[in-house]
Amino acid sequence: MNFTMKYFPMSAMNWWYLANVTVDYTQDKDSSSSNTTSTMLKDRSFRNLISAPQNWSLVCGNPDNMTRIFAKIQDGTNLFLEFKNLQVQPFDVIDGSFSRAVDCQGWFSIGIWTGLIITLLLLTILTMGLCMVAQISTMDRFDDPKGKPLSIPQND
């Protein structure tokens, strides 16, 4: 694996990312001989997934989004590279331990997004209901039972 450091003006800091991955594998077609072959994986399958700020490490407990890093081998089969419990920090390692970590799962899960959207929808409905109740006005004329009856013309 080769890592590259690049300055990104939008974040005003250096970020490292995985530049390329080369996999060496042994292919046993016959029991008598085995060949060790090397292949480079596709750049677009991992470049945006494995990156972090310069002094940070990347940690992924269950990286579902990184399991599709693949390449086609000469005989037409696919080569998959799957990571489990991955933690990587290629630069600025101090005393052999990882520094702060960026989690690959993101800040909001599906459950959190669903809860936020439903809460926003219910608050909107409540606000509209309160506005409708506030617009209700009482009649300004009342019928006096001891006096002359109130006459309201009904002309169309």
UniProtKB/TrEMBL annotation:
<dbReference type="Pfam" id="PF20520">
    <property type="entry name" value="Ac45-VOA1_TM"/>
</dbReference>
<keyword id="KW-1133">Transmembrane helix</keyword>
<dbReference type="InterPro" id="IPR046756">
    <property type="entry name" value="VAS1/VOA1_TM"/>
</dbReference>
<dbReference type="GO" id="GO:0001671">
    <property type="term" value="F:ATPase activator activity"/>
</dbReference>
<dbReference type="GO" id="GO:0033176">
    <property type="term" value="C:proton-transporting V-type ATPase complex"/>
</dbReference>
<dbReference type="Pfam" id="PF05827">
    <property type="entry name" value="VAS1_LD"/>
</dbReference>
<dbReference type="InterPro" id="IPR008388">
    <property type="entry name" value="Ac45_acc_su"/>
</dbReference>
<comment type="similarity">
    <text>Belongs to the vacuolar ATPase subunit S1 family.</text>
</comment>
<keyword id="KW-0812">Transmembrane</keyword>
<feature type="domain" description="V-type proton ATPase subunit S1/VOA1 transmembrane">
    <location>
        <begin position="106"/>
        <end position="144"/>
    </location>
</feature>
<keyword id="KW-0472">Membrane</keyword>
<feature type="domain" description="V-type proton ATPase subunit S1 luminal">
    <location>
        <begin position="4"/>
        <end position="91"/>
    </location>
</feature>
<protein>
    <submittedName>
        <fullName>Uncharacterized protein</fullName>
    </submittedName>
</protein>
<dbReference type="GO" id="GO:0030641">
    <property type="term" value="P:regulation of cellular pH"/>
</dbReference>
<dbReference type="InterPro" id="IPR046755">
    <property type="entry name" value="VAS1_LD"/>
</dbReference>
<feature type="transmembrane region" description="Helical">
    <location>
        <begin position="107"/>
        <end position="133"/>
    </location>
</feature>
